[in-house]
Amino acid sequence: LAGGIILGVALWLRHDSQTTNILYLQLGDKQAPNTFYVGIYILIAVGAVMMFVGFLGCYGAIQESQCLLGTFFTCLVILFACEVAAGIWGFVNKDQIAKDVKQFYDQAFQQALMAESETNNGKAVVKTFHETLDCCGPDNAIGAVSPLWREDLCPNKGSILKNLMESSSCHKKIDELFSGKLYLIGIAAIVVAVIMIFEMILSMVLCCGIRNSSVY
């Protein structure tokens, strides 16, 4: 059940419309940074393996098989190690993920402002960011003074002044988006780790109980 819940949460995060709209973008030959998906794929793998390992543990308990329970324990130790490694990776990269996406957005924004023709897709990339996150520009102050600002890059709310007043900075929205998603991943990882610890303890207790009972 825990594996199924983790798998469901991971698949929901993987197919969330906001992140997929942004992370599937391509600026010329450059793909949007998708480091965020590494953590998601780890969760998907852990959830799927947990479901299989859970079945192995249940079957081993029903059959009172020390071999199956020992295998169950070993698999849990490996999964727990992967979980800790993924948690450390996520903690180290939590700021870098948002930073990479912001840099990608800034490059697209500059291309959208400078382009005299429609030969590049910078404008389309920027509009996708603005519409998905309901934001306007990398920094409202920069956008307000830029002579190259294009009103049609922002969600249509009337005048450009109204756009700047009512829309948040896209840098801020990107930070909020990924910090919220990484927060969910962190909660899921902690829940899984706690469940795994209890599973390892109980499987060893049961395995020892079966071994002791077989003596008599």
3D architecture notes:
This protein is mainly α and 216 residues long. It has a single domain (1-214), classed as Cd81 Antigen, Extracellular Domain, Chain: A. 78% of the residues lie in helices and 2% in strands. It is built from eight helices and two strands. It has helices at 2-14, 17-23, 36-63, 66-114, 122-133, 140-145, 160-166, 170-215; strands at 26-27, 30-31. The chain has a two-stranded antiparallel ribbon. Strand 1 and strand 2 form a beta hairpin. The protein is elongated, with a radius of gyration of 24 Å. The two termini are 35 Å apart. Mean pLDDT is 77; it is low at 144-148.
Mean pLDDT, rounded to whole units? 77
Total domains, how many? 1
Structural class: mainly alpha
Distance between the termini: 35 Å
Helical amount = over 70%
The low-pLDDT segments are 144-148
- Could you give me the name of the CATH homologous superfamily? Tetraspanin
Question: Can you tell me the overall shape?
Answer: elongated
As a whole number of angstroms, the C-alpha radius of gyration is 24 Å
Task: Sketch the major β-sheet.
Answer: 2 strands, antiparallel
Order of the strands making up the biggest sheet: 1-2
Number of discrete helical segments? 8
CATH architecture: Orthogonal Bundle
Quote the beta fraction. under 5%
Membrane topology: Multi-pass membrane protein
InterPro entries: Tetraspanin/Peripherin, Tetraspanin_animals, Tetraspanin_CS, Tetraspanin_EC2_sf
Main location: membrane
Organism: Pluvianellus socialis (Magellanic plover)
